[in-house]
Design a protein that fits this description.
about 250 residues; alpha+beta; 4-stranded mixed sheet; 6 helices; 12 strands; about 40% helix
Length: about 250
């Protein structure tokens, strides 16, 4: 082929490649990472809802009472990753909007499709006596199902006169119980937990933190943070693993 013909073909090839890259860049710019549409979704056999929550998102799975806060991170090609507070990725959103859900049963991911609208959840009002009864119920459940004996406590006097604070404290306690239950699935985790922890105490703090004081596991929550002010059950299980030096799969 004449050199002029080769040069022309190369020009056409590079021009086409440049045009394709330009179109991709324009598409990613137009459909920037903010294109995570709230609503109800299905991914295989899993149904879930996604809501905006400031610069974060809330996710609820069908059949699971917990409301999880998702934190955003950048992903390749203008996409975004949504993570639990434990650090595990639960959703990837491509730059052009395609969404993939990751679960323990589908670690490679399942495409998710929007199926309808949703509503932003709110914390459940609870009386002080109901919260104290729930604390006893959670302790009894763990004793029966996991063979560990502990009690849940808080500053009941402070919670008595503040309904909003009590609602968040109740939610934090429920997450703590679920997180402990998740952690105690492993036999070696039960042994370590039983030797080190006899009480779980909820308290106010600047952010969600867990630390040991004697045989008391202290769990703090931020009253101003709403759902983001308390740890999820996944975050609780992961933090317990770090404190008790037990590897916990997310």
């Amino acid at each position: 082929m004449p050199k002029a013909g080769i040069a022309l073909l190369l020009c056409v090839f590079f021009a086409g490649a440049a045009h394709a890259q330009s179109e991709m860049a324009q598409r990613l710019t137009k459909e920037h990472v903010g294109d995570i549409e709230p609503g109800s979704y299905t991914a295989g056999h899993v149904a879930f809802s996604l809501d905006t929550y400031g610069d974060k998102y809330l996710i609820r799975f069908q059949g699971d009472p917990e409301v999880y806060v998702l934190y955003t991170d950048h992903a390749p090609l203008g996409g975004r990753a949504l993570k639990f507070d434990s650090g595990a990725i639960v959703i990837r959103v491509a730059g052009w909007g395609g969404m993939t859900l990751y679960t323990a049963d589908a670690p490679s991911g399942v495409p998710a499709e929007r199926s309808g609208d949703t509503f932003t959840p709110s914390l459940t009002p609870v009386s002080l006596s109901d919260m104290q009864n729930a604390a006893e119920d959670e302790a009894e459940h763990l004793a029966y199902s996991r063979r560990v004996h502990l009690n849940f406590t808080a500053d009941w006097n402070a919670l008595a006169g503040d309904a909003r604070l009590r609602a968040l404290a109740f939610d934090a306690m429920e997450n703590a119980s679920r997180g402990i239950d998740r952690f105690l699935v492993l036999p070696k985790a039960r042994d370590a937990f039983a030797k080190r922890i006899e009480q779980v105490r909820l308290g106010l703090g600047n952010k969600p933190v867990m630390f040991m004081s004697g045989k008391t596991l202290n769990i703090t929550f931020n009253a101003l943070g709403g759902y983001a002010g308390r740890a999820s059950s996944r975050g609780i299980a992961r933090a317990l693993g770090q404190i008790l030096q037990i590897n916990v799969p997310d």
